[in-house]
Amino acid sequence: MPTTITLIHSISIFSGTTLLTSRGSILFSTSPPTILSIHATNPSPLPLVDLIIDGTGHTILPGLIDGHVHCHKGLPELAQAIKFGVTTVCDMYSEVENVEGVKRALGTWEGGDGGEGGRNEVADFRSACLPATVEGGWPEPVLRATVVDGDADKWIARWPKLKTAEDAETFVKLNMSRGADYIKLMHESGTIMAHTGPLPTPSIALQASVIASAHAHNKITLAHALSMKDTLAVLEAGTDGLAHCFCDEVPTKELVEAYKKHDSFLIPTLIVVATLTGEEVSKIEEFLSGDLAQKHLGEEEKSCFCGRMMMGKKECKVDYAYQTVRLLKENGLDIVAGTDTATGLKGTAFGLSLHQELTLYVERCGFSPTEALRSATSVSARRFRMSDRGVLKEGLRADVLMVRGDPTVDIRDLENVEGVWRGGVRLVV
Q1: Residue 353, H or E segment
Q2: 189-244 residue pLDDT tens
Q3: What is the pLDDT of residue 312?
Q4: Which of 7, 128, 182, 423 could staple 33 via S-S, CB 3.0–4.6 A?
Q5: pLDDT of 265
Q6: Which CATH number covers residue 416?
Q7: Residues of the domain holding 332
Q8: How many angstroms separate the CA atoms of 52 and 48, rounded?
Q9: 118 shares a domain with 186
Q10: pLDDT per residue over 9-33, tens digit each?
């Protein structure tokens, strides 16, 4: 494929950390798939390149990163995500065959022969592969509630059943060989669930063993926990990040100190907390009425986006999660945007859900639009150790999003997607 060099000029540039200019230019190519230059002003005269775009009235920013999804269907979900400007997704559990299949298609499978994949018309994919589970524990209840094609028993039978520190080391090494980019912990006692009852939960010592093994192999850990008690326990074990925010109690100073102890970060997944509690329904139709949703979501996906799981106990409130996100941010802790989107999971839709999540950060959690954008670009890339993306900078990947308007002023302008490039290759949206 011949190299294509693109110049976008007369455009506002959000770098992933700050608004660099309101009328600058960016030059990037498909081979190498990197940003060649960024300037605060327009070049004069304009260089002779393959594609020149006048960006007047638009903003460019790094392609968005969704820090928590589940790609059980694989490439079709990645194809939908990128149409909403999401150029990278971080999968928090998928079956082994799915992880290998997707990575082979993308050309990122380490065991490949180098001649596979390389597809840029779908979002890039990172995965935890299988989670560190114990017998009878989470996520068995939610899997049985959402997987309706008979695969639940087959999947559950293949999950690890960890008991000892030796099991932890074996699991981490095996999971890495299957394509895991990081390690997912499960620490769910069922405290907040209305219908599951108590669930087996790993000991803190066992979780610490998994974390130590992951760190020994240069992998970070992300932990599922939906109650404050479970969150505090897995933070004590030393996890790098939490994959959800709890919704059963008001956040405390003890929680802040627990996060600070290991400089842990939070992926709030506020939209899924809201679907657990049955809240945040008033703006659903507003998000669905946008041009992108109308164009790229089918009726089944729209219906799923409107749904609510209603699995939380009546005392659970999404406002506790909002308070927690606000408190952690005020204390200098990192918030990484993520949605927990999965096909069939009520209240979610690939791509669109990240726009809703970022809007909640601004409207409910005291973020400025710029802070919200950082959580889905530079902060996410830094915490997931993806040093080649998340920031618009010379030499980094040309994963670029162009929107009409200025999302650093109005976060809802992020939905006005006019162009998406991954590795310098433009997707038709």
Answers
A1: helix 352-364
A2: 999 888 777 899 999 999 999 999 999 999 999 999 999 999 999 999 999 999 99
A3: 83
A4: 423
A5: 99
A6: 2.30.40.10
A7: 64-388
A8: 8
A9: yes
A10: 999 999 999 999 999 999 999 999 9
Residues 88 and 6 in one domain: no
Do 113 and 202 share a structural domain? yes
Query: Is 25 found in the same domain as 125?
Result: no
Residue 395 and residue 384 in one domain: no
pLDDT at 113: 44
- Sheet with strand 341-342: strands edge to edge: 124-127, 86-91, 64-70, 341-342
Which residues in the chain come in under a pLDDT of 50? 112-116
Distances, alpha carbon 154 to alpha carbons 52, 185, 229, 300, 311, in Å: 51, 21, 31, 25, 24
**Pair 406, 354 in one domain:** no
The tally of domains found in the chain comes to: 2
CB 268 within 8 A of CB 276: no
Instruction: Residue 396: name the closest of 387, 383, 409 by CA.
Output: 387
| Predicted pLDDT at 115 | 43
Percent helix, strand, coil in the chain, to 5, is 35, 20, 45
| Whether residues 117 and 35 fall in one domain | no
Tokens 């670029």 found at: 400
pLDDT at position 164 is: 93
254 CB-near residues (< 8 Å, 6+ apart): 232
Q: Would you say the pTM of this structure is higher than 0.90?
A: yes
